[in-house]
């Protein structure tokens, strides 16, 4: 079972208390963008085997959105952080690199 710690209220919650929100750090297509860019924003997502950054909502708790870094194969969680963060914090990246030295970072 997936267990994540909400960075807002500090509660350790299992997946039954959470709502998945898809890939984190997706760059939005703004006004004036091409049809191709808007289509890519709507439909193109990474689906890696390994380290992935995701959006989650503490649905049955404080209700806030947050981000998590985890391994999609082993379900290992590297950490969670607030949704307003535009890039993974250094401590999350360090935790990933400590356990996955071959990881090359986000594309």
UniProtKB/TrEMBL annotation:
Domain of life where this protein originates: Bacteria
A Gene Ontology molecular function term of the record: sarcosine oxidase activity
InterPro entries membership: SoxD, SoxD_sf
GO biological process: tetrahydrofolate metabolic process
Protein name: Sarcosine oxidase subunit delta
Organism per entry: Tropicimonas isoalkanivorans
